[in-house]
Amino acid sequence: MSAPHTPRMFLPVAIISLCTALAQAPQPAPPPKVEIREIKALGCVRKAVAARCLLLVTLDGETTYSFIAAPKPELGTIVTIQGNAHQGSAVCKQGIQIDVTDWEPTGDKCTE
Predict the structure, then answer these.
(1) pLDDT digits (tens, 9 = 90+) for 50-90
(2) C-alpha gyration radius of the chain
(3) Taking CA 99 as the corner, what is the angle to CA 95 and CA 100, rounded to the nearest 5 degrees?
(4) CA 65, CA 54: separation in Å to the nearest integer?
(5) Fold that domain 38-109 belongs to in CATH
(6) Cβ proximity of 83 and 97 under 8 Å
(7) Nearest alpha-carbon partner for 41 in 90, 78, 88, 93
(8) CA gap 112, 99 in Å, rounded
(9) Where do the structural domains in the chain lie, given as residue ranges?
């Protein structure tokens, strides 16, 4: 004859079953870390503190971008730049760093 089952015997089994079910539950995917943002700006090319870097100060003076380009636009000229927000550590330590995909001179000089 077998011993009657008591609630105490089922408690450890229930706890183990619950823990196993929770551990196997699907986890939500983490949100994307950084969204790549395309940037297009018109402004005046200025010299940056870092040797290879240039600054583009928008014509309204509200925003400053830092970038590296080859060939380099002339200092003191107005250009249109296109690129993406830089991901990772920045070489240029001023303004918003972007990775320039294209730049084009407007033919105008900056006013001081």
Answers:
(1) 888 999 999 999 999 999 998 999 999 999 999 999 888 88
(2) 29
(3) 100
(4) 8
(5) OB fold (Dihydrolipoamide Acetyltransferase, E2P) (2.40.50)
(6) no
(7) 78
(8) 26
(9) 38-109
Q: How far apart, in Å, are the Cα atoms of 52 and each of 48, 49, 74, 102? A: 8, 9, 13, 17
The residue assigned the tokens 């991901």 is 87
Burial class (CB in 10 A: 0-12, 13-18, 19+), 93: exposed
What lies within 8 Å, CB to CB, of 76 at 6+ separation is 44, 45, 46, 109, 110
Q: pTM of the predicted model, to two decimals?
A: 0.66
Q: What is the pLDDT of residues 10-54, one digit of tens each?
A: 566 666 665 566 566 566 666 655 566 899 999 999 998 888 899
Q: Residue 42: which residues within 8 A CB-CB, separation 6 or more?
A: 58, 59, 78, 79, 80, 106
Residues ≥6 apart with Cβ < 8 Å to 43: 56, 57, 58, 59, 63, 65, 78, 79, 81
- Return the SS3 of 9: helix
